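Field notebook, page 374. I keep forgetting to write these up properly, so this time I am using the form the group agreed on. The chain and the ligand, magnesium ion, are recorded exactly as supplied. Prediction of the bound pose follows.
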Amino acid sequence: MKRKEFLSLAATAAAGSLLTRCSEGSRAPAASSGRTAVSVKLYDLKLKQAWGLSRGTWTTRRNAFVRIEKDGVVGFGEAAPIARYNETAESAAAFIEKARPVIDRDLGEYAVRFGEIEAVGPGEHAAKAALDMAILDWVGKRLNVPVWKLFGLAGARTVTTTYSIGIDEVPVMQQKVRDAADFSVYKVKVGTADDRKIIEGIRAVTDKPLRTDANEGWKTKEEALEMIDWMAGQGVELVEQPLPATRLEDYAWLKDRVKIPVFADESLILPSDLPRIAPYFHGVNVKIMKCGGVQEAVRLAAMARALGLKLMIGCMIESSLGISAGAAIAQLFDCADLDGNLLISNDPFRGVKTVKDRIILNDKPGLGAEGDLF
Ligand code: MG
């Protein structure tokens, strides 16, 4: 497909809720020629309830989905673009098109392919994650093994997930907690002027442990320390990203004073960031969409463990496809926040099941997720 044609499709996609094929892939025959058929669709995930963070509120999130097919085997991947890093579903689709020559090569050499995808261009981590996922899904299906098994993990070992409570009016947040009674730990979004009211409101309806995520919302280290100490007294177990990502000197100050662990999320993108930021945090939140895929997340887990950090695996607003990829490696982490699929009403995939707060892996080959999007 010519670049111009692709761009016009991307523009059409931007205008509608469901975007269409960005390459000729899915209509092409299974790649007996050695080529990989590739198709991309943009799809608006609808939030069951408005999703409020310290930096904004959303009712839908547009993700890019990729389908690859070679030798009669199909692989799926998902990009949940991160606006903070200037990613959109459209830019993810454009990157996937740009990476097309890499996907035509031997997919069995998935680690080599990831290095080549990384070299296609900077940023666009969610798009890279989608390709990494699709290739691993393809490899797993080709070999008839689940991705968790490819990484030497145990299918029977279940992981529990926290349930995220987005910022809203306090009575709405209280109702979100009541509606999520199956979960044993809540992750509450904070980073506003009303954080005390929020936590007090939630405490009025549950005595379960809480974790909070300020998404860089607090302005000074003194404010952060005061809030973290207060939250520790309210049964908050850990706080994620209280201050802006680059203020590492403030994090050093905080780390020496806080009573509960402080986790990095926005401060950590790639494995190469980890040695630089590790001294300033107690733990890190690793996301497949942020670091560029399953392989990078596994690498991050090993590095973070070696550096003595606590480990969380997180997610964006994702379908059951992306969550299945996170779940496949979740047992490498101390805790999981893999609930993005539970927050949407029009999940285009079926994958891992969440029973109460336990994520149950399945024995299907690849990522174990299927859907009707393509
Ligand atoms: Mg976070």
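OBSERVATIONS:
- The domain at 37-144 is CATH 3.30.390.10 (Enolase-like; domain 1).
- The first strand starts at residue 37 and ends at 53.
FOLLOW-UP: compare against the apo run.
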